[in-house]
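Exercise 7b. Backbone tokens:
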């Protein structure tokens, strides 16, 4: 149906190169496998690995795994599947409000947060393909390569947000940086 959904409708520019050839474009672990063959943990860590490889390839600091951001991202992925929507805002609120409730911003001053979402079925739902889709979408690529972001949490839910189901997965990455 709508395999490989992206949060923004900028698919016309999907032919942008992902990065220079080399290690940044190689898969991490089992990232090429369909969602039904992977644990949620493997899907989450594969996405973070792929993002960090391309960041290092572009001379950027790797993103640090953050449990609060993972909690926010996971809850959003589950919410999209359970409630049947595909958007950055939903019953749980905006990315800012969800990240704030997760505890990530607790006691901190200035902050920056961002989010990528995607869903796909079969091989279109593999961590590798989701990462490739993001790298071919300028706003998603910008989040992954934003030098201001320091932390990330990846959430994955089994299923498709707009129905269908089967061998599908819905992904959310919440990015953040806080300044005390």
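Sequence design result:
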């Amino acid at each position: 149906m709508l395999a490989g959904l992206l949060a923004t409708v900028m698919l016309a520019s999907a032919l942008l190169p992902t990065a220079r050839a080399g290690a940044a474009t190689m898969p991490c672990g089992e990232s090429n496998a369909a969602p039904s063959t992977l644990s949620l943990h493997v899907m989450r860590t594969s996405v973070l690995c792929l993002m960090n490889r391309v960041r290092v390839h572009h001379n950027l600091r790797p993103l640090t795994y953050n449990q609060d951001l993972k909690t926010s991202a996971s809850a959003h992925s589950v919410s999209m599947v359970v409630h049947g929507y595909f958007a950055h805002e939903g019953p749980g609120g905006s990315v800012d409000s969800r990240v704030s409730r997760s505890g990530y911003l607790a006691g901190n001053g200035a902050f920056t947060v961002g989010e990528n979402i995607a869903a796909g079925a079969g091989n279109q739902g593999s961590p590798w393909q989701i990462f490739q889709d993001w790298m071919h979408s300028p706003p998603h690529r910008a989040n992954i390569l934003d030098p201001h972001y320091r932390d990330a949490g990846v959430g994955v839910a089994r299923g498709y947000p707009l129905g269908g189901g089967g061998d599908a997965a819905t992904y959310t990455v919440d990015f953040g940086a806080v300044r005390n």
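Instructor comment: Helices lie at 40-57, 67-83, 95-102, 127-135, 138-144. Residues 1-24 have pLDDT under 50 and may be disordered.
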